[in-house]
Amino acid sequence: MTAPTALKTFLDDLDRFPPERLYGRVASVLGMLVEVTGLEGVLSVGGRCDVLARGDRRVPCEVVGFRDKRALLLPFGSVEGIALGCKAELAVAQPRVRPDPAWLGRVVNALGQPIDGKGPLPQGREAYPLRAAPPSAHARKRVGGKIDLGVRALNTFQTCCRGQRMGIFAGSGVGKSVLLSMLARYTASDVNVIGLIGERGREVQEWLEDELGPEGLARSIVVVATSDEPPPMRRQAVYLTMALAEYFRDHGKDVLCLIDSITRFAMALREIGLAAGEPPAAKGYTPSVFGELPQVLERAGPGVNTGSITGLFTVLVEGDDHNEPIADAVRGILDGHIVLDRQIAERGRYPAINTLRSISRTMPACNTQAQTELVTRARRLLSTYEDMGELIRIGAYKHGSDPKVDEAIKYVPDIEAFLSQDKQERADLESGYAALARVLGMDWPAEDASSGAAAQEGSATEQAAQTAGGKPIPPKNDLRRARRQKKAAGAAGEGA
Ligand SMILES: Nc1ncnc2c1ncn2[C@@H]1O[C@H](COP(=O)(O)OP(=O)(O)OP(=O)(O)O)[C@@H](O)[C@H]1O
Ligand SMILES: [Mg+2]
């Protein structure tokens, strides 16, 4: 270890201990809120205290505000056993985590403690603060090339780039968790960091075992805060998820960060805000919720060096109201949204992505002209069909009345089939375009062997790719190359 590193490690270690032991006393407990006197001079909002409850139980708490010269604390555990006069000990102000690559395959709680019964976690040498500022906007790289999400509908219609942040918006039971598990298993990322926030305990276990499975878990760290845990734990689980993602990003990894769900995180923030005496605003959410959301979500994205954090965050839209305040706020922060539609799920088409209502803001800049034209044509057909859907279904549309509608009726069932994907199937990015071209009866260039994207054995999309002939698709796309290709394609009359 070099001298500066050793010194930094020593200082980090030193940081873990408070400079001196300072105590206050519990002066009142009301609901979740614990009021402490005697420490108001040294505590600040976000600071930490350990309350020593009856039975020698140490309850970590966070300062959420001050009132009448008392510090207002919210505990990370149950308030049971906390009595008037109990000692409140000043703790380390800035909680940190010391991750290590050996954490992959493990499940932890919001405090970074293992909860999978697989023994203790090795502590890394670097301390990462749980609450960190995102890299400054000008120092950040731009989003990278396309990332293969392994889900055909997303790869083609909502193409995502490395370092992009997308929201998955859906009502309850429309397939968010299943889609997330597909993303965790199939995305071409180096590492996954997954935050499960506010789910029922039983669901978490089922999701880990049945949906994520050992294959997905092996390349992931899962942070869990279930619905029965106090709001500071649910909030901190999100901070920890981001801190772990930042650790791997800083080590040059392409990280996929999944959080299910941001809504439950916002609900935890709301509970904390209300307990601290903030006034409720939209739907009871306090103003601080809307200040906090961008700060957290901005932590995902490209880094300043090689690594990146691609973020996919679910947003629960209550009563399928896509304009509720959290959905609205999150949509404004992220680089795109994927809408899952209950009607589509009811038809049995999974993943139930509403292609027309979902967008990726990095498209079409990341596409070649041929890809853009292909996707635009498919969208146009879907849109025409949707406009006429009712008439077509009740049989009021007369074939031959409008060639555009006839064309939509001809192609849309196959496009729908293209959009559906079994959760056990992995689809790759490049062959998705060839498969869609085949559905639309368009010629498509044979795949560029150097792209290495067509290596999926036995997938339907690959077979489609094999049958398509013509010019090779240019490999990786960046903005400049895409523009060059666009020009070249224009000259060559490509894309038919
Ligand atoms: N890809 C899929 N293939 C087949 N069935 C699916 C798929 N995705 C979802 N489903 C069905 O939909 C149900 C609900 O899915 P899921 O648990 O992912 O929804 P959710 O949006 O996460 O729900 P909640 O809001 O309760 O968390 C699943 O139990 C399953 O029956
Ligand atoms: Mg779910």
UniProtKB/TrEMBL annotation:
Biased composition (Low complexity): 447-469
UniProt keyword list: ATP synthesis, ATP-binding, Bacterial flagellum biogenesis, Bacterial flagellum protein export, Cytoplasm, Hydrogen ion transport, Ion transport, Nucleotide-binding, Protein transport, Translocase, Transport
Cited PROSITE patterns: ATPASE_ALPHA_BETA
Localization, UniProt: Cytoplasm
A molecular function GO annotation: ATP binding
Documented EC number(s): 7.1.2.2
Superkingdom of origin: Bacteria
Region: Disordered, residue numbers: 447-496
GO cellular component, one term: cytoplasm
Catalytic activity: ATP + H2O + cellular proteinSide 1 = ADP + phosphate + cellular proteinSide 2
InterPro entries xrefs: AAA+_ATPase (IPR003593), ATPase_a/bsu_AS (IPR020003), ATPase_alpha/beta_chains (IPR050053), ATPase_F1/V1/A1_a/bsu_nucl-bd (IPR000194), ATPase_T3SS_FliI/YscN (IPR005714), FliI_clade3 (IPR022426), P-loop_NTPase (IPR027417), T3SS_ATPase_C (IPR040627)
Function field: Probable catalytic subunit of a protein translocase for flagellum-specific export, or a proton translocase involved in local circuits at the flagellum.
Family: Belongs to the ATPase alpha/beta chains family.
The protein's name: Flagellum-specific ATP synthase
Origin species: Rhodovibrio salinarum
Source organism phylogeny: Bacteria, Pseudomonadati, Pseudomonadota, Alphaproteobacteria, Rhodospirillales
Gene: fliI
